[in-house]
Amino acid sequence: MSTALTGPAKKIGTQLHLGSEVYFEKINKNGGINGAQIKLLVADDGYEPKKTVTNTRHFISNENVVALFGAMGTPTSHAVTPILEKLKTPYLMPFSGAEFLHTAPTINVFNIRASYYDEAKIQIKYLVEEKKHTKIGFLIQADEFGYVVETGLLKSLSKYNLKPVKVARYLRNTHEITQALEVLKSSGATAISLVGTYKPLSVFINTAYEQGYKPDYTSISFASSSDLFANLKYSTNLMVTEVVPNPFQCKSVWCTEFLKDMKNANVTTPNRLHFEGYLNAVFFSLAAQHCPQPLENTCLMTQLNKSFREDQQLNSLFLDKNSINGHLVYRSFFSLK
What we know:
Blueprint: E1 2-3, H1 10-29, E2 43-44, H2 49-61, E3 68-69, H3 74-87, E4 91-92, H4 99-102, E5 109-110, H5 116-130, E6 136-141, H6 144-158, E7 166-170, H7 178-187, E8 191-195, H8 198-210, E9 216-219, H9 225-230, E10 238-242, H10 253-264, H11 272-288, H12 297-310, H13 312-315, E11 319-320, E12 326-327, E13 330-333
Parallel strand pairs: 1-2, 3-4, 4-5, 6-7, 6-8, 8-9, 9-10
Antiparallel strand pairs: 10-13, 11-12
Helix pairs in contact: 1-11, 2-3, 5-6, 11-12
C-alpha cells in the first residue's frame, strides 16, 4: 500500500490504512486465510507520483507482493500505470475514481468505488436542478486528478447547455489559493465545484467567507469530507459526494460489524475513510479465502469479481440496482457544530 502518511493529504492515507489494518488484524487473530497471515506493507509517498513509482517498484521487485492494495490518488495511479501494464500485478481498490481505472482499463485493476464521472453527475444535478445555479465555477487541482474530474464536470454541465463561468487552478500539495479565489470571486460564480484535498479546499472556503464571498459548494469524495468539515470555521453551503454510506446511518451488517471492530480497536471517531479502507480489506479477504496457496493473480481477480456480484450485503453498499452498471453515490452536507 503506497499512500500519503505525511504531507497535506496525510489524513486520507492514514485513515484508509487504519481501516484496512483493523480488519486484517481481526482476520489474522482468527487464524488468517487458509492458514496464511495477511501482511499489509505500507510505504509513504506523500501523494507525490515519483515516490509512488519508487514504492511500487520496491514492493514488486524486493517484497514480491501478491497485490498492490488501496493505493491513494489519481496522479499516483497514473504514474505507476506503465509498470502495471507490463507486470499485470493486481491493483486492488485504488482510492481514485479516475476514468482510466474504470473504463476499459489497461491494467489488472479491481474497483469498488464509483467513478468521478458518477460523482460529477450528482454534483451538477444538485447545483442546477436543486439549487437553480447557472453561474458555476470550478476550483481544480492542477494535475491528472483535476483533469479527470474536470472532464466529468464539463460533461455533466453540457447536458444543461451550460459551461463554467471560470476555471481556476492550484498546485497539488500546496495551499496557495489566493489567485484562484480572486479569479472566481470576480467571475460572478454563485456556486463552485471543488476538486482537491481537504486542506487547500478548506483554506479556500474559509478565506472566501472572510472576504464576504459565500457561494454554494460541492466537493468530490477524495477530499475526505470528515477532514474538510473539521477544518471549516463558518456556516457554509457545501455538499460532498461520497462513495460509501455513513456507517452510523447504514443498515447493512457490514456497517454494524465495522463499528464494532473499530470500537474494539479503540478508534473513537470512525468515519467514511476508515470504512472504505475496512471494506477494501473485506473484499480482499473474501476473495482470497476461495483461492489456494500460494495466491495467484487469476484466482484472486476472479474471486474478487465473484464476491462483488454475489455478496448482496456488500454490493448493496456500492451498486445501484436501478441502473445498468450504476454505482451508488451518496451525499453529505456540512453543518457547523
